[in-house]
Design brief:
Layout (H helix, E strand, L loop, with lengths): L1 H22 L3 H45 L4 E5 L2 E5 L3 E5 L5 H12 L4 H8 L3 H13 L2
Antiparallel strand pairs: 1-2, 2-3
């Protein structure tokens, strides 16, 4: 019978300790929550700053591309056999068949890698109109 009193006493003590631990506030949890709140706030501010900067850069690129498009005037490319005619105030005829194969391959590789017409023309050393004619011919004859 003495063992039962001991078991009941230990059980009562366990319940009392459990209730005390539930109702007392733990300062370490509050400190951890405060640190997490500060960390999340810092991350939110950094993310907002990054998104704002990306938006500014996109606007700058968009405005720059619009300005560069306007400076080149209106062009129309007309296909006549394997000869492409680019019309503006001046008419220039580009015969794609007379362009060297190395130059053509370099232009097509750069185009496939996503470079712009101006970057390709600077890299290869030919005019933007010639690059456009080579790419048009490539797209037509895939």
């Amino acid at each position: 019978m003495n063992i039962w009193w001991l078991v009941i006493g230990l059980f009562v003590i366990a319940i009392i300790l459990l209730l005390i631990s539930v109702f007392t506030k733990d300062n370490t949890n509050n400190e951890l929550e405060d640190k997490m709140d500060r960390f999340m706030e810092e991350q939110s501010q950094e993310l907002f700053a990054i998104k704002t900067r990306i938006s500014e850069l996109e606007n700058a690129v968009f405005n720059a591309s619009n300005a560069s498009d306007e400076s080149y005037g209106e062009f129309e490319t007309v296909e006549e056999g394997n000869t492409y005619v680019t019309t503006d105030e001046e008419t220039e005829t580009i015969d794609v068949d007379n362009i060297e194969d190395d130059v053509r391959e370099s232009v097509i590789n750069d185009y496939a890698q996503g470079y712009t017409m101006h970057e390709i023309s600077n890299h290869v050393g030919i005019s933007t109109n010639t690059v456009q004619a080579i790419i048009d011919d490539y797209i037509e004859n895939r």
